[in-house]
Amino acid sequence: FPDWPIRDPIPFLRSCLATWYNELEKKPASMSVELAREILSVDLTNEEHRKPAFFRRQYYKLAAKYHPDKNPEGREMFERINAAYELLSSESVNNSIMPDSHRIVLCLQAQSIIYSRYSKELSEYKYAGYSQLIKTIDLEAKDEALFIKGGGDLLSAAIELANYTLISSALNAEQLRRDNGLEALVTAFDRCVPMVTMSSNPDDMPVQVCIHVCDCFATAATFEACRQRLMEMPSIFGALCRLLQFSNLPRLSTASAQCIRAMAVDTLLQ
């Protein structure tokens, strides 16, 4: 994103959250597209049948035929006709009925931009999306398809946003700790660290996730309650030391070193 000005960051953040929630709440349609076409007698081999006007004509004709006021036994079919028309007349069938992971990633990235530019302005507000953000991190980190090509974009975007919210306010660090967000980050860390090798590239998803998690831990370590929780997660310490070896990935090794430095303020974490 270019460095465009954001006139009203707080209302914009609320809009991003609302759009994100609306996307997550989408559910599969009650019937398949194929069944909807069958109910409205749509034949895709006929060019005329592809037009919205044809859907409307079929809907009005069949709805009149099966309307319960005229056909007491037609209520079930009437409801199916309504459902079929609503499905087929959607602006975009695929995007309208199921959550779009790309749109969700954009919503998360937009929030990261807001927090990266207006951290001070947002510092007095507690981030409102932790419940869903932590759930997203946890589910994505446990996804069997995480390392398949194209996987992990959502996880990386979610963890990056988590770090920006932590930087903004101590209120957020405490909320993340209370909502078991540190545990979700450790789950992601434990899965991605072993995937980083000497042949890894800086843009590889596991590398990016590890960088963002290191940044999160470093920020969280500035708060005593978070440090106490980190003490209970011994797997992260060996993982952090392992990441120091990758001279071919300077951003990653630097993030790991900075994380270790942040934790070293606590005698027990040393």
Automatic annotation (TrEMBL):
GO CC annotation terms, alphabetical: endosome membrane
Superkingdom: Eukaryota
Cross-referenced InterPro entries: DnaJ_domain, GRV2/DNAJC13, J_dom_sf
Alphabetical GO biological process terms: endosome organization; receptor-mediated endocytosis; regulation of early endosome to late endosome transport
One family name in Pfam for this protein: DnaJ
Limits of the J domain: 35-119
Stated name of the protein: J domain-containing protein
UniProt source species: Caenorhabditis japonica
